[in-house]
Amino acid sequence: MGSGAVIPGDGGEPAPRAPDAPRPAAGRPRFVVDSGAGGPIIRGDEVNKLIRVAVVGATGYTGCELLEILTRHPRAKVTSLTAKLDHPILMSEESPRFAGRLDLPCTPLDVEDVCRKADLVFLSLPHGVSMKYAGPFRAAGKKVIDLSADFRFRDAAVFAQWYGVEHAAQGLLPEAVYGLPELRADEIRGASLVANPGCYPTGSILAIAPLLAAGLVEPGEIIIDSKSGATGAGRKASIPMIFGEVNESFRAYKVGRHQHIAEIEAELGRAAGVPIRVLFTPHLAPMNRGILTTVYLKPRSPVSSSALLDAYRGAYARSPFVRVMPPGALADTKNVLGLNFCDISAVADDRTGRIVVISAIDNLVKGAAGQAVQNMNLVSGFPETEGLR
Question: For 31-60, how does the pLDDT look when each residue is reduced to its tens digit (9 = 90+)?
């Protein structure tokens, strides 16, 4: 989830539509994204291509998770690390797990120095902060993957409404691409500024969008219930997040006003071709990481569980990081821990006439750092799965 949640504290064929469903509107996304069996073909001198990367905001949970993945990535070389520091410190001293693996210094941010050392920059910064630095990096010709919410909306007014901050880099909004590869792989490949999705939106959108796009569910009847581990609030001192408060407790927060609502509604509206409103309730679960999302939907017409699963399999046939669970199996956060997968289960409840969809992701991986590296692979022309399996 990275900086997303704050505790108060296409190629291919689209999924089948219901007979009475409206036809897709122009400009709507297609859900079988033609990313190949893991990405594009790499030719000639691109085979040994190595990209120099910087992580700005390297000491947070998401920054450290990025480094875990990047240090194992065969085509990425970490060349610059920065954080909000008074003086430089070795990354292996800040986080001893990197001893003998990544002994680079982590320094206060110097944009010019980062530009000299890196080709691509990950901004793992709080909302409202990334926008101050994306411009200078883009002006220097660097590709930027932003893990905050600063570039997830084309409309600066929507960002200001939900995040309480006036956007300081509105000129960059038109070039930003929403970085959910399962929906927008082709756009991401040509992007220079990628807005990495939030954690809750990732699990929610992947669970709902194919059914909306196929016309199988009513767009005005969407209830989302998400449970996240404590790392979603970020690595900062906060009384509601200390062990004694989180342990053996399970609580809802920001009911009806969580900032990710706008992001979920925007992307689902793009899938459905009509404006969408959702009822979204996030919860803090007494675990370190993971998000389990349960979605309640109303079908347009009676539908079986097997038909739902077929729709998901068709939609994500070329999406290497979505796993559609077999009949009777339910998505579980334990099975995605440390992995870049989103597991999806779907059940048609004949008794109530409703559909229940469950998705599970690791908030720090598919919900943040892993997805960011997936986006790096796409913008760099690498196989989509490189360094992530």
Answer: 443 333 344 444 445 556 899 999 999 999
